[in-house]
Amino acid sequence: MSDIRAILTDIEGTTSSIDFVKDVLFPYARTHLPAYVETHADTPEVQHWLHEAAKEAGFVEASRTEIIDLLVRWIDEDRKSTALKALQGMIWREGYESGAYVSHMYPEVAARLRAWHEQGLALYVYSSGSVPAQKLLFGYSENGDLTPLFSGYFDTQTGHKREVDSYRRIAEAIGLPPAQVLFLSDIREELDAARTAGMRTTQLVRPPQPLSENGHPAVADFDAIAP
Asked: How far apart are CA 112 and CA 224, in angstroms?
């Protein structure tokens, strides 16, 4: 893969355990969302995303309580809503800054990201979590602040992760031909879309899952990737 000039990485199941998101971040947001909305509802950014959530749900008119109930239900459903992800990111910031938690990284990830950065590879993130939430996760990691290693971040405002055009837009934003971008993910459908867009792909199959290829080169960790 010597022609690779940029690496685009997913987060959940790729750089970080899905359990951290499922067992730490989601419950924290669910517990704190009602009070957060009540105390921040007058701020322009929160107002914007509450309006977007109502519009997405098809509400013509809705009380604040109804919107809060909607958002909590979406958390339970793991809905890939841009509005929900943005609001979760704001709540998670308070958790990170208060020291309630630090983000999980698989053992080899930080060192490998640093090595790739030193080799001159441009590093990018593409996750269904909002860009601010991505920056918090890498900024408050178990291995310290990793954000200086990254050249950019992409979320569902670019497009959904199983859509081919999302990866074309990312390659255009990066300014590289898709063939010079390596996309890392644990989800086959995301990898399929990236490959159709022309990107190189590698699937992360984290233990205890058995290592088997599913139409894409498969590795158990970042140390097995040679871009």
From this structure: 10
Stretch among 78-87, 93-102, 151-160, 169-178 having the lowest mean pLDDT: 78-87
Helix axis angle for 164-174 and 188-196, nearest 10°, is: 60
- By CB atoms closer than 10 A (0-12, 13-18, 19+), residue 49 is buried
Tokens at 24, concatenated: 């730490």
- Whether residue 85 has pLDDT greater than 80: yes
Q: Which two tokens stand for residue 190?
A: 């995301």
Helix intervals (H) in the chain: 18-20, 26-40, 44-57, 64-77, 82-98, 109-118, 131-139, 164-174, 188-196
125 confidence band (pLDDT: 50, 70, 90): very high
Q: Which of the pair, 154 or 78, is modelled with greater confidence?
A: 154
Closest by Cα among 103, 192, 174, 86 to 139: 103
Distance, CA of 7 to CA of 222 (rounded, Å): 12
31 φ/ψ angles, rounded to the nearest 5 degrees: -70, -40
- Phi-psi map region of 99: left, alpha, beta (phi>0 left; psi -120 to 50 alpha): left
Place of tokens 């909607």: 70
Count Cα neighbours of 64 within 13 Å in the Cβ-side half-sphere.
12
Q: Is the pTM of this model over 0.85?
A: yes
**Tokens encoding 180:** 């010079």
Element (H, E) at 201: strand 200-204
Q: What confidence tens digit (pLDDT) does each residue in 32-45 have?
A: 999 999 999 999 99
